Write a sequence for this structure.
């Protein structure tokens, strides 16, 4: 069970038809709560900051993007259940996953072992294949958006970044995403398609396998420069997995495999190798 903090005096007691029980976390997009639906089932409720939706057109775009995300098949994904507005604040309700994020698990326990890494890689690639098949691009795939639930790894927060990107495009040139996992074309403000998610998948699997970011840096500009100009740091990772991650981290999106191709490649591997030597945990910093 992820850590649940008590509601503060500033938190709502309910969002739409969902009663809130506690805070799961907060970030640049908003606050995530654990709540209950009318039948008593547990759900995750993400209440976004009001400034992210500036006008009625932005709100309608947000609802359309979330409706698209609802069509994603529930294969290794946390299903999007509902959305709406609390005052001027948009919210998204999704399936609750009882487990820590990959970010927290690697930080606390170190790199994944061979069998856990293989399951993680296959499940998350399967999730991306389902997301892309529905016509959605995640745009913010990262260790913090992979939850290690009791039934295996699950991908969350797909569809949100696209909605926010559309709503802010007229007022900001800053791309939506997490710097250490953003593809070069995303950084450059180019077209962001499924290939960007495969870049982020490669960087996330590298973090899971080695315990450190594939594109290190002491600042956001430093990280972005490394992504655009440098080569990924895959540590002591060897063999077919290293080759696969290198392909996913290609600068040119046309040179990256699709999620379906990644799945086929992973299924052909009897066991994924792990680094020969343990790596240091990821340092605190942007990303």
């Amino acid at each position: 069970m992820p850590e649940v903090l008590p509601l503060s005096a500033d938190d709502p007691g309910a969002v739409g038809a969902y009663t809130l029980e506690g805070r799961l976390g907060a970030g640049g997009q908003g606050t995530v709560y654990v709540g209950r639906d009318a039948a008593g089932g547990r759900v995750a409720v993400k209440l976004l900051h009001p400034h992210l939706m500036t006008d009625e057109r932005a709100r309608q775009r947000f609802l359309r993007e979330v409706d698209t995300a609802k069509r994603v098949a529930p294969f290794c994904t946390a299903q999007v259940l509902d959305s709406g507005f609390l005052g001027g604040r948009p919210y998204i309700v999704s399936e609750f996953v009882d487990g820590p994020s990959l970010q927290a698990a690697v930080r606390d326990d170190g790199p994944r072992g061979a069998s856990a890494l293989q399951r993680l890689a296959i499940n998350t690639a399967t999730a991306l294949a389902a997301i892309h098949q529905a016509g959605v691009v995640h745009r913010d795939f990262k260790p913090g958006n992979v939850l290690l639930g009791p039934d295996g790894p699950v991908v969350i927060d797909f569809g949100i970044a696209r909605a926010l990107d559309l709503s802010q495009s007229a007022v900001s040139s800053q791309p939506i995403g997490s710097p250490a996992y953003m593809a070069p074309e995303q950084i450059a403000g180019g077209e962001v398609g499924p290939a960007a998610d495969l870049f982020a998948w490669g960087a996330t699997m590298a973090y899971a396998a080695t315990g450190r970011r594939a594109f290190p840096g002491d600042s956001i500009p430093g990280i972005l420069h490394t992504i655009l100009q440098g080569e990924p740091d895959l540590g002591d990772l060897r063999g077919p997995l290293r080759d696969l991650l290198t392909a996913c981290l290609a600068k040119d999106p046309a040179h990256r495999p699709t999620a379906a191709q990644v799945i086929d490649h992973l299924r052909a591997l009897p066991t994924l190798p792990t680094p020969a030597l343990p790596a240091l945990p990821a340092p605190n910093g942007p990303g």
User: Anything to note?
Assistant: The chain has two domains: 15-95, 102-267. The beta strands are 14-15, 18-26, 30-36, 42-48, 80-86, 89-95, 146-149, 152-155. The CA atoms of residues 22 and 58 lie 28 Å apart.
